[in-house]
Every structure is written in structure tokens, then in C-alpha cells.
Specification:
alpha/beta, Helicase, Ruva Protein, domain 3, two-stranded antiparallel ribbon
């Protein structure tokens, strides 16, 4: 719904959730898709340089300004400007961005003439801007200008089977990049991907899959290639939880891939958790694990879970 409009979009979410990908998709399906998509990481640019980066500068404006330079607002004219980590801009820069949004006019650093621009701004942040406003670090008027269409990108751990779809997308991407046939996920690896909490979100998923694709000689990526191991999930109760009862999630192995015994323990734990989550509906549990019902029965017999 946001893409075909000219409304500004404010995307919030944890680091690595794919906010830039969302912004690019909005641009790709907008009426500005033939125009440029210009990205600025506001957290990566020193405060003394960000105004020049956004609005440009004229020759001699400061030491090192040996020629006129166009700013990102001007470069994005007729297209989309993506302001990533917008909460990291200084108060002074926020005021200038607010004027640019209100009037669609920018003034290069050291210049005396204004430049009219036609820009759609999409902003993103991993911070709670309401908290930033209360703390006096973010302008409320700029927030209202940016927050025309709010969007929240949930963390990967809350997106269910999206982790599998994203994994398949990345594997196809790697296959094209390396000129190889796309690899597939083995059932045990799919279960591990679903169980892992993904503190680094989509960015972490991509890195782990790229490593696995490089290490995997065959066509199937297994849990061993992913090098993830299970740990008990924290429970609210302070009472000790027997290991065999604790639901499990995966966490990165810091040294070596798990041994085969560890993989069997992990697989059993994943099956137990899937059965509990499905209220012991074996068809649903098998689907969640990426197995057929027959394959699930084989594994249940193997681990004495009948």
C-alpha cells in the first residue's frame, strides 16, 4: 500500500532485520522506480561531514572542499532518498532535514543559492523515536514529518517460516554468484534454522548460509554445515528444569561443528519441541520440521518417542 503513494515512510526494527531491503522494495514498486535510489547511513558519517553529504557543498566551503559537490538530496531528485539510522543525526542536521522536507529546497554548505529537489524520503531506525524525543535527542516535528506511513519489520525469530524462505532465496543468490547449482536444506538444518533465535537477524542468516554453502561439497546443507548447537531456552520460573524437558533453541558454535552425538541430541530435542508446539499433532509437527509424516515416525521410533 505504501509503495504507489508519495508518502514518506518510517521503518523501524532491530539491526539486521532487512529495513534497507524493505525500502528498496517500496522504491521498486513506486511511481519513482525509474529514478535513483540513494542511501545515506546517518550513523556512519561524522557530524561535521553529514551536512555536506546530504546537501552538498561549494568549492572552498571548508578545508578539503576543492570542488563543488552535489548532496544526496539533489542526487535523489525524482527518486527516493533512504535515510538509514536517522536517529543518529545531530539536532542541527535534523533542523536542516526538516526544512528540506517542508520546502523541497536544499542549500549547499558554503553556498548562497537554494536548489529545488523532488525527493521521496524513506527513513529507518533501530531506536524508539518516542524515547529519543522524550530524551531531547530527536525533534518531534521531524518525527511527524517522517512518520506519515509507519512500518515495523519484526525480528527474524518472530517470522516463522520466513527463515526458510529467506534461506532458499540466499542459496539461489549464492548459486548465481558462484556459478553453481543451488543447494537445498536438509530436514535437520531446516529445523535448526527455525529454532535459532537470530540475534543478528537477516544479516546473520545470510552470513551463516554463505559459509555453509562454501563448506558444503554436496547438494544438501545439513545442520553440521550450519555449525549451530542447541541450548535450553530461558524460562520465567526459577525452578530447575530437567535437561530432557527443556525446550531448545540453537546458538552459534564458537569453535567446531557439533559431533554426530550432539546432532542426534539436537534432533531429538527439536522433534520433542515440535511435537509440544503442535500439541502432539504429528502432521503439524512434521510440517514444522520440514519432514514427511513417515519420516517423523521413523525418527520418533529412533529416539524412543512413540
Amino acid at each position: 500500500m505504501a509503495a504507489p503513494t508519495h508518502g514518506r515512510v518510517l521503518i523501524s526494527g532491530e539491526n539486521g532485520t532487512g529495513k534497507e531491503l524493505v525500502a528498496r522494495q517500496i522504491h521498486a514498486f513506486s511511481q519513482r522506480r525509474t529514478g535513483p535510489f540513494i542511501e545515506v547511513n546517518c550513523a556512519a558519517i561524522p557530524e561535521e561531514l553529514i551536512e555536506s553529504e546530504l546537501f552538498g557543498h561549494v568549492k572552498g566551503a571548508f578545508t578539503g572542499a576543492v570542488a563543488d559537490r552535489r548532496g544526496k538530496f539533489e542526487m535523489a531528485s525524482s527518486g527516493t532518498l533512504f535515510l538509514d539510522e536517522v536517529a543518529d543525526m545531530s539536532f542541527k542536521t535534523q533542523a536542516k532535514v526538516l526544512r528540506a522536507l517542508q520546502e523541497q529546497i536544499v542549500e549547499p554548505v558554503g553556498g548562497h543559492s537554494s536548489i529545488r529537489v523532488d525527493v521521496r524520503v524513506i527513513a529507518a531506525t533501530n531506536k524508539d523515536l518516542a524515547d529519543e524525543i522524550r530524551a531531547g535527542r530527536f525533534r518531534e516535528d521531524l518525527y511527524f514529518r517522517l512518520n506519515v506511513i509507519p512500518m515495523f519489520v519484526p525480528p527474524l525469530r518472530d517470522r516463522g517460516d520466513d527463515v526458510i524462505r529467506l534461506a532458499e532465496h540466499f542459496m539461489a543468490e549464492f548459486a548465481e554468484e558462484y556459478g553453481r547449482r543451488a543447494k537445498r536444506l536438509a530436514p535437520d538444518s531446516a529445523a535448526v534454522l527455525r529454532a535459532y533465535r537470530w540475534p543478528g537477524n537477516v544479516r546473520e542468516l545470510r552470513n551463516i548460509l554463505e559459509r555453509a554453502a562454501i563448506l558444503c561439497d554436496g547438494g544438501l546443507i545439513t545442520a553440521e554445515h550450519l555449525a549451530l548447537t542447541p541450548v535450553p531456552r530461558a524460562r520465567p520460573s526459577t525452578a530447575p528444569v530437567p535437561p530432557e524437558e527443556a525446550p531448545v533453541e540453537a546458538t552459534p558454535a564458537h569453535s567446531h561443528p557439533p559431533a554426530s552425538g550432539d546432532l542426534q541430541s539436537m534432533e531429538r530435542a527439536m522433534i520433542e519441541q515440535a511435537l509440544q508446539d503442535a500439541r502432539f499433532n504429528k502432521s503439524k509437527a512434521a510440517q514444522a520440521l520440514g519432514l514427511t509424516r513417515a519420516q517423523l515416525y521413523v525418527r520418533m521410533r529412533k529416539y524412543g518417542l512413540e
